[in-house]
Amino acid sequence: MHPRRRLVVAITLLIGFATAGAAAGPVAAEHGGPPVGSFLSCDRPVVPPRCTSVGDNLVHRVHFDASLTDALAAAMRRAMADYTAATKLVLVEDAVLTPATDVIVYSFDYGPNGAAAWVNCPPEAPKGINVEGHRWCRHQELHFNLNSSYGAFFADDDSRTHVACHELGHTIGLRHWGNPPETRGPVGATCMNADTPNGPTTLHADDVAHINAYRYVTRRALPRHPLL
Length: 228
Known about the structure:
The chain is α/β, with parallel strands linked by helices. It has 4 helices and 7 strands. It has helices at 3-24, 70-86, 157-171, 205-213; strands spanning 59-64, 90-94, 103-108, 117-120, 127-129, 135-137, 140-145. The strands form 2 sheets. The chain has a 5-stranded mixed sheet with strand order 2-1-3-7-4, with helices on one face. A two-stranded antiparallel sheet has the order 5-6. α2 (70-86) packs across α3. The longest helix is centred in the first third of the chain and has 22 residues, at 3-24. It is globular, with a radius of gyration of 22 Å. Mean pLDDT is 85; it is low at 2-30.
């Protein structure tokens, strides 16, 4: 073959390989755990009332009610600092409740009601549907149940940090690992494992990846949307 002909063929092949690679694009990583999103209707007839919502922007504001114990306030601050360090979110403690506050944290002896802690978006809370089609909610209520039945969840600093990290995750749209129907995936080393006193105190790397891939933006509520 003539040298010039060989050069043309070689260049054609190189362009073909490059084009094929560009068309294929990078392979999306498969993460463990469920992705970020709102979950379940907040007005279900369950006790205590609970649902998972997302935040409406990248600044997640948390207010501590006067009922919150000092130990749980410290656990919340540790969990909030971990979220801020690990993700694109910035978690801020609001000394005063404002219209922009995303979460209000309470602790009380609610009795043996089946939950050591839970998060809910009350009917009167500011809420809407974002561009992802998920419910965002401000003034979400995060409750810690100080009943002795759930003492294992609050026995020491690590236990309290685990449950604080877990419930805080629900306020930004994280759901349980390995707990159908939320997900049938395996349980990972994450504070989002369900019903695990003394569980991990931080997020799994896949939780962080889900948060950092999510668009935390607000959109006006849609009329009669099923999530509202």
